[in-house]
Amino acid sequence: MFRRRIAATAAFAATAALVLTGCSGGEPATDSEDGARGERLTLISISSPTSFDIGAGAEWGTRSAYFEAVYDTLLRQNAQGEIEPALATEWEYNDDNTVLTLTLRDDATFTDGAPVDAAAVVASLERLRDGTSQVAGTMIGQEYAAVDDTTVTVTLPAPNPALLTQLAIAGGLIASPDSFDDPDVATSPVGSGPYILDTDATVTGTTYVFEANPDYWDQDAIKYDALTINVMQEATAILNAILAGEADGAPIDNNTLAEVEGAGWSYESTELDFQGMMILDRDGEMAPQFADPKVRQAINMAFDREALLEAMQDGHGTVTEQVFQPGWDAFDESLDSTFEYDPEGAKALLAEAGYPDGFAVTMPSIATFQTTLDLVAQQLADIGIDVTYEDPGTGQFLTSILTPKYPMTWMSLAQSPDWNTATILLAPNAVFNPFKTQRDEVDAYIDQMQNGTEDEAAGAAHGLNQYIVDEGWFAPFFRVQGSFGVSEDTTFEYWPTNMFPSLFSFEPKN
């Protein structure tokens, strides 16, 4: 899958530009008079963009819609997770998978009138790589070159099985280089995407208003004359907006699904995040007890996952003992029964490890999830582990974990394809491996995933998952059901790999 040449399987024909008008308010979708498009799509997001400057704010997840609206990516991912053409129409690796050659379409322009050419693509990729956004860490060591106006090469320090996916999301965002020195770049994006941000109608942090781009290269992909994204973080506020008919699409809290359906909405669900324990200090640098696999295994046996799922998520999710995502090579359903809930057995393991009376541990707290943290502390107390929570400071929960200040923590984290999981959670230099745990077995599996044949890489991914489950590197509880709903006048497809649907998937129902 990684090695074979992937070329465009469908042509994205540019149609004649249409000059469109849209209402200026935030009313939900209605049909245009000619029936070709909806007038306005009104969505709700729980997050606002930190910056439209791709070097500082490039991000996907709950913020993907903002960036999809104004920027194109080099590639695109469909609702089945397959890679498709976008600004790049063809792409091909060299024999050792260290050079990717991209062929660009020649009919895309930025909203400032400049062409989307190879020089602009190189400048954007360099800004992403050298910037401060979350994607910068995935681009370390990459070099880019414009071979001619429509050809770009990406040279890697080593094969990267996730590169095509990264170029289809935040790591492939392309912006006009002429905007990079604009003092308003954070709030006035200049891209080649299907919409243009209306800065006069936008209220930063609250409401973002967009108008269709009349010069977009794929007019058929634009399903609405205008787009509004309202920011709401509270489930009650989102539900009230739905009941009042003030939205066409929104993330749905699991506890409000029945009321949302009663309002005539439909929804789709997927499981992207896992919740559970990250046992970080596996070498015992800060807390010596965690160096013993028996202690980590005992922690896994301490949790009644079914009861936690019911208490924390009203049963909306699936219990798991794996950080790897279903549907990929690493995942093995049988591993979800590795550690049965057995407090007495957990106590016995702690005694074998030299802790018959248990021990104490300090973990970070976060007010939003205090009820969850209390349940975690209760179940750990049942096997003799006394938890003290410490407030790391406002907005410092994640920073305190990665510093690192704590040997173990509760965490809610998105699950990813195998290679991303290995490089984000498990490799010695992984972001979520703050104590830099290194094991020869893990290194060997990751090397095989990177350099082996497809079959060898698949086997290595499965072996890696088996190893970290058996060794108790984590103690996941469950995968959380995330739901997104739309009004009776709207249709969409839920991405299997992102918590917010692609803008390109929304359409008026008729």
UniProtKB/TrEMBL annotation:
Domain called Solute-binding protein family: residue spans: 82-418
GO CC terms of this entry: ATP-binding cassette (ABC) transporter complex; periplasmic space
Family per similarity comment: Belongs to the bacterial solute-binding protein 5 family.
One Gene Ontology term from the biological process aspect of the record: peptide transport
Record keywords, A-Z: Signal, Transport
Domain of life from the UniProt record: Bacteria
Leader sequence segment: 1-29
GO molecular function: peptide transmembrane transporter activity
Name of the protein described by the UniProt record: Glutathione-binding protein GsiB
